[in-house]
Amino acid sequence: xxxxxxxPRFYNVFGANYDFPVGLGxxxxxxxxxxxETFVLNLNxxxxxxxxxxxxxxxxxxxxxxxxxxxxxxFPRIKPILxxxxxxxxxxxxxxxxxxxxxxxxLMMEHLPLDVGVIGEGEATVAELAxxxxxxxxxxxxxxxxxxxxxxxxxxxxxRAAIKDIDAIPMPDYASLxxxxxxxxxxxxxxLIFNYTEQPRMxxxxxxxSCPYKCTFCFHPLGHKYRQRSIDSLMAESTLLVEQYxxxxxxxxxxxxxxxxxxxxxxxxxxxxxxxxxxWGTSLRAxxxxxxxxAMCKASGCVFLSYGVESASNEILRSLKKKTTIEExxxxxxxxxxxxxxxxxxxxxxxxxETPQTIQESxxxxxxxxxxxxxVSYIAPYPGSELYRHAxxxxxxxxxxxxxxxxxxxxxxxxxxxxxxxxxxxxxxxxHSYREVLIPAEITHVEETGNDPVKGPLHTxxxxxxxxxGHPAWTRLNQPWFSISFGHLTMACRECGQKFHTLxxxxxxxxxxxxxxxxxxxxxxxxxxxxxxxxxxISTRLMRAATAVVSETPDTxxxxxxxxxxxxxxxxxxxxxxxxxxxxxxxxxNGVEPALPVIRRLSSLGLRVHPLICFPxxxxxxxxxxxxxxxxxxxxxxxxxxxxxxxxxxxxxxxxLSVRLGDAARAEQGYRDMTARWPEYDAGYLALARLFMAQxxxxxxxxxxxxxxxxxxxxxxxxxxxxxxxxxxGAGRPAAVQAGAA
Length: 742
Known about the structure:
Number of helices: 29
Radius of gyration: 28 Å
Distance between the termini: 34 Å
Structural class: alpha/beta
CATH class of the domain at 186-344: Alpha Beta
CATH architecture of the domain at 186-344: Alpha-Beta Barrel
CATH superfamily of the domain at 186-344: Aldolase class I
Strand content: 15-25%
Shape: globular
Largest sheet: 7 strands, mixed
């Protein structure tokens, strides 16, 4: 059978690193091994609209079947693929698999334009399914599928038994998946696992399937039977990836790579992977490691381990069916930290037995172990999990279909607490985890050294690790897109593996430039009681270099983050003259205007004020810029926009503001970037066309709208603007209008 496998678009911004499609890689290899002609469309490698790319592939390859898949949160990324296939080639059989189908087969058949769903492991199923479709055999004879009968009603076939020998499954077809192109999407600051190599080439591997445990929040899309690949099989694939493709980081993405009853497997892997000379990471249970095991892991190249922490309350751990204790977890985390391996884990609030007391128990433990920088979030009842069934039974989820739009960001109260009480506590500590639980490194040097056409400016960064005192350095750090949401970056020390914080790289650069200008002269920092105050909390270099910290209320108590940097008390501004201090650095979160009275008072004392605009979040930046624009303070608005663009390089709102502020050239580039990043939305095309029209560039507007209407056929806003272009030209019928009419 002639098939087309479509890999959903997983990235948020074109060029960003995304989850490598290992599962679809296995499906691809299985179909090819069975002799079926199979093509691949990876939607992550081209920024054109999804519908346009799928249509082109369908017309080029003329497949009999289109296959795609993913997990439940990928619903909005999978649906447009299937809709386009149904619209362009109604005769093509649409097939979808993965956790999204396995968790809720009938629900997905109802809400996706789907002919066949693959339930559970798909390798053997798709090979048999392709043969049945080829021969016209009834699909009832293919185990592990859900399909539509003659009336269109979804019908399940018999369940498929788990694959016993997973060594026998063909390894993913890395050549067809274009692994080298995937490597190009990776940069040094795309996540903790990328911090360890100058040119990261990370590839995920699967070393086992399912999990022997039954945690209430987990769903095992590959079945309930835990199976492990032999180390021979795993090493054969690892060797291929290193020798043929140049991989330098192996991320074993198992639910559980090794168990406490089979530690020999982990020992053997450590013994053998060492010869490849690569870094690696995986997920382990806290009760399956000890200091000897961790020493072997470290010696073999392990730099990253993920643990399921979840709660510091043994009562909640029992309710979650974790079958571990906080004492075991604490021992594992301490041993991993001492072994100089980066560790990650989550505290998740919201189990059905959660109370204010158990939340506080977890918070107290978390705050006393802040050196691990564990993340705090909500528990999510993913489809297929025990908690999901509980939430349906209790009415927390009123209807299965109601939850579909929330798959990617579930925020539900399954506790016995009132909503206000639960969300008040959970929101408070989730925010506290990134505003207050900070471990800043001392930055000794930062420099912008180049530019990547996709990743943007690249930086050299040198630091002193707050954990080990080492001096890690990086030469190709990018400003990652996900820093749009936060006012700081989390990085891992290359020497001890532990996590610390820096300011966004443009802010670190601005601080260094200020220190260079001052050239060793004594200066003070004005401390203000602000919501975030990240520069004072994070910039160890700025605060240690300061001679004094000025406060408008000098008799108040100094916060711990200042005391730790040698500032035991505040200084009144009037006292600076006697300290031979003439310069004051002023970190600002919301622009200059709110601080003008303070700036005027400091200036009246003969002090030189150096504002450092450091927006803690993109929403603060936008609010400040819009306020300045609304009050006709255009020069300030432009300055704020220039600062914000460096810190938050991907922002549609900032592109739009560029036009309002009269920066037409920057706005045009911004709109062109927007159409490249979000080609499936009309906002960029409309804005750029209006800009062309305002500048009298009517032919360019017409060409742009023609292209846009090919990509977004039937879009009324684009067609309406095309008609305006026609009226402005005064004669003729531009092709854009013809396309719109068609």
